[in-house]
Design brief:
The complex is a heterodimer of chains A (about 100) and B (about 325).
Chain A lengths: L2 E2 L5 H5 L4 E7 L4 H16 L5 E7 L4 H6 L7 E6 L2 E7 L4 H11 L1
Parallel strand pairs in A: 1-3, 2-3
Antiparallel strand pairs in A: 2-4, 4-5
Chain B lengths: L3 H4 L2 E7 L3 H12 L4 E5 L5 H4 L16 H14 L3 E4 L2 E4 L11 E5 L2 E10 L3 E3 L15 E2 L2 H4 L7 E5 L3 H10 L5 E5 L9 H8 L4 E4 L2 E8 L4 E8 L5 E5 L2 E4 L3 E3 L29 E3 L11 H20 L3
Parallel strand pairs in B: 1-2, 1-6, 2-3, 6-17, 8-15, 9-10, 9-15, 10-11
Antiparallel strand pairs in B: 4-5, 5-6, 7-16, 12-13, 13-14
Helix pairs in contact in B: 2-4, 2-8, 6-7
Classes of the chains: A alpha/beta (about 100), B alpha/beta (about 325).
Bound molecules: flavin-adenine dinucleotide.
The site of flavin-adenine dinucleotide has 37 residues of chain B, from helix 2, strand 2, helix 3, helix 6 and helix 8.
Amino acid sequence: MAKKLTLENFDEVINSGKLVLVDFWAEWCMPCIVMGPLIEELANEVDKEKVTIAKCDVQTEQAIAQKFSIMSIPTMLIFKDGKPMDQIIGVSQKQALLDKIDRYI
Amino acid sequence: MMNEQKTHEKYDVIIIGGGPAGLTAGIYSSRAGFKTCIIESGVIGGEAASTDLIENYPGFPDGTSGLKLTENMEKQAKKFGTEIIYDKVIKIEKTNQLQKGKYKILVTNSGKIQTKAVIVAVGTKPKLLNIPGEKKYKGRGVSYCATCDGFFYKDKKIAVIGCGNSGIQEGLFLLRFVKKIEFVEFLPKPTAEKVLLDKIKEYENVNFHLNSALQSINGDGKSATGITINDNTTLKVEEIEISGVFIYVGLNPNTEFLEGLVQRDKNGYIIIDKNQNTNVSGIFAAGDATIDTVKQIATAIGSGARAAINAGHYTENTN
Ligand SMILES: Cc1cc2nc3c(=O)[nH]c(=O)nc-3n(C[C@H](O)[C@H](O)[C@H](O)COP(=O)(O)OP(=O)(O)OC[C@H]3O[C@@H](n4cnc5c(N)ncnc54)[C@H](O)[C@@H]3O)c2cc1C
């Protein structure tokens, strides 16, 4: 299952030493809802020793969204060693996300 | 994502695109007993899924959200056995197989798939303005989806480009969040329907720049901070400070992948006859991607039903 990212666990998750893909979403965003099952599939398929797939609700976690200047959802941010490396804005297919992850592992 | 096993499966009817037209075709085709699948490259529900309030779709006196409406269409299609595959169709193979009675081969991002009949229901995508700053600030101040991104502009001043039905309707939604909207319209008058214009006129925090062209979207490198507009008559150039720009300047059909196979008009809309036939036998088209000049859910579903029934007739004569 994708990990729920909150202000409390943010530092711990991002600095875990693993590559982290965060899906910024909200319940009123249809494209985000549609991406939901795909993100869960991704979470099940990646090598959990190396990669964490997380979801961040922009409505309850406004501080995180603001920190990374999220102004459009869905947006995926890829973090490596605690730093944002890449972003994907808008709906994307699973393979495209897997390819991105592979590039940073 | 399509798996290997599915790649070798054969269908009676494949519908490309899961908007209102495609979902309706799915309902009719699977209910009639045809092995049916919808291939969708983005969001099930299409353009309609992200429309906040739909007031002109029959059966909902108080209006309905596009999300609810299309979720129900999806349920209904699945109930009758329509399969949904998330993938993008990049080509319909041009072989002698395109003769009547033969399987057609669709090429997708992850493989090939065979079907007797095809219904193209790929809809449209927002037209880009191709002005400086538009690409650079996409997702950082430039948006094409009010329901997705309106939330990020609470108490901010924004611009809405285009005063057709979409621009005004989405503007009305955005007014729930934003402090002020600067509307920009290239034509001397807004082209939206009167009901919508009457509604927007009730607001004091809107401002109209008519007869004006958007020249650029400006920013600080990180996000958009303003727009530059040009008055078509006085040629006066004006810079307006805003935090977000929502662009609704029209649509382009998603039909590039049909190039060289299916006949389209000069704007890319698929040419169809009154039975939704294209120039290729066994390839039908429905919804906003066709030359039908009314682009509404009610018309999309009508043509989706017609395409499915005719695709069914075609399939029955195929071995
Ligand atoms: C802002 C806005 C407000 C609107 N308000 C209303 C309203 O109030 N009432 C009303 O009746 N109508 C309204 N409309 C119009 C309505 O949304 C459309 O007429 C309707 O969605 C058209 O349906 P469609 O199935 O033809 O296309 P779409 O809804 O565009 O669906 C096409 C689908 O095909 C998919 N696709 C495209 N290419 C491929 C490919 N190569 N492979 C696989 N899949 C593909 C797309 O991802 C998309 O999901 C509005 C539209 C907009 C933009």
